[in-house]
Amino acid sequence: MRRTLRQSGNAGERVSRAGTIRAAAALVTGALVLSLSACGGDDGSDSGKGAAGGAAKTATTVKLPKLDGTKLEVSAVWSGVEAANFKKVLTEFEKRTGAEVTYVPAQDPIINFLGSKIAGGSPPDVAMLPQVGAIKQAVEKKWAKPAGPEAVAQLKKNYSPGWQDIGKVDGKQYGVYFKAANKSLIWYNTKVFENAGAKEPKTWKELLTTAQTIYDSGVTPMSIGGADGWVLTDWFENIYLSQAGPEKYDQLAQRKIKWTDPSVKQALTTLAQLWGKQDYIAGGADGALQTEFPKSVTQTFTGGDQPKAGMVFEADFAGANVQEAKAKIGTDAKVFPFPTVGQQAPVVSGGDAAVVLKDSKAAQALLTFLASPDAATIWAQAGGFLSPDKNVDLAAYPNAEQRSMAKALVGAGDDFRYDMSDQAPQSFGGTPGKGEWKDLQDFLKNPKDVAGAQSKLEADAAKAYGG
């Protein structure tokens, strides 16, 4: 759903050394700088074409069975543009197999939605789960079925071991990470930066200086989609990973240290340096808490040279909302990597994994298809999408920014950290109005109460993890 690139806290995780994280961060930074300086007015209109204007490869690389007359249901929390683009993928599966696939929109948290469907005897055949913790819960509840040999073969062929591992529970493959995200980006309105004489910051201190420069020019510096708690967890995770380092990050993700740890205090105190300045946030804390993620992006790129805010933090998928605002990526809107807070810049990733709930030939065939570059290429051409599949032709991505982000994602290999809240039990890290989402919303409202925020986070984590 919602990620410095990170590794799962589940079985099979690896603790990356600081040097590899720096290398991954440098790769992202370099790719973005090159793309943004080179692309000019590339707004994504060359969909399906590579940098040289040629068509992306569309050859069939995976064999699928004939499934004439078979009906399948697939559920995900995607809506709007995301849902429309995913349906294009499902339509291609229908063409190749003869199956009939129905997309069933799910509510967040999807585990609760699936629970009601299963209780009613009508679960979807396949579900797209946006958290590592949700996959684990689905397995524990005996809802999820293991991936078949054909899907596993596609994963081994197309995915790095790290992306395979985060779809495993107790060493067995269940999830296929179809959609990935780079959640260490800040988008900015180029007119605002030009008018203010602001520069892209590389460090947290420089970000605060840039924010003040934009504020002095008459524009509110930052837009925050605080109504969606996951946005706030991403803020914390980027700061924590950069400041505390990857080993501490893993320890907090695995609950080997508590939320009352001094490293959490330090990260929240740093976060409060920005969140505590109400004039820096569009609408102040109250306004931010009533602003959902899509609006936090669009209001940054509408209103000419007097938008609601000059910058907005979030992942590559914010590009779809930038385009909704009729802004051209690369000219009206640009991005810079999340600034370095500690010794290294953060590089956080997340994604959505396909999991089979009703084991059948058709459901396993869809899982196999989603593990192939054929499926990922379709959405890549539509934009607003990154795939961890290393065999997706970069020419499939519609603009220079997305090609650079995809290259950095795949190029990082296994040197990443996965979204911490998405590794947690859903009751703590993935439920509106509860757990970490609610606690950080409360902290946004009162960023002076660091100790109180830590106490709430620890109490809710203990409850969710069972101690």
Fold and architecture overview:
Pfam families: SBP_bac_1. Keywords: Transport. This is Sugar ABC transporter substrate-binding protein. Belongs to the bacterial solute-binding protein 1 family. InterPro entries: Bact_solute-bd_prot1, SBP. The protein has 467 residues and is α/β, with parallel strands linked by helices. It folds into two domains: 1-183 and 350-432, D-Maltodextrin-Binding Protein, domain 2 (3-Layer(aba) Sandwich); 185-337, D-Maltodextrin-Binding Protein, domain 2, CATH 3.40.190. The chain has 21 helices and twelve strands. The chain has helices spanning 18-39, 80-97, 110-119, 132-140, 149-158, 161-165, 190-196, 204-216, 229-244, 246-253, 262-275, 284-289, 293-298, 318-324, 361-370, 373-382, 400-411, 420-423, 426-429, 435-445, 450-465, and strands spanning 71-76, 100-105, 126-129, 168-169, 172-173, 176-182, 185-189, 222-223, 311-313, 333-337, 348-356, 417-418. Strands 1, 2, 3, 6, 11 and 12 form a six-stranded mixed beta sheet that branches. The longest helix has 22 residues, at 18-39. It is globular.
Helix content: 40-55%
What is the tally of beta strands? 12
Q: What is the top-level CATH class of the largest domain?
A: Alpha Beta
Tally of alpha and pi helices: 21
Please state the overall shape, judged from the principal axes of the Cα atoms.
Answer: globular
Q: Profile the largest sheet.
A: 6 strands, mixed
Assigned CATH superfamily of the largest domain: Periplasmic binding protein-like II
Mean pLDDT over all positions? 87
CATH architecture of the largest domain: 3-Layer(aba) Sandwich
Distance between the termini: 26 Å
Report strand %.
5-15%
In CATH, the topology of the largest domain is named D-Maltodextrin-Binding Protein, domain 2
Gyration radius from CA atoms, angstroms: 21 Å
Class of secondary structure makeup: alpha/beta
Family: Belongs to the bacterial solute-binding protein 1 family.
Protein name: Sugar ABC transporter substrate-binding protein
InterPro entries: Bact_solute-bd_prot1, SBP
Organism: Streptomyces sulfonofaciens
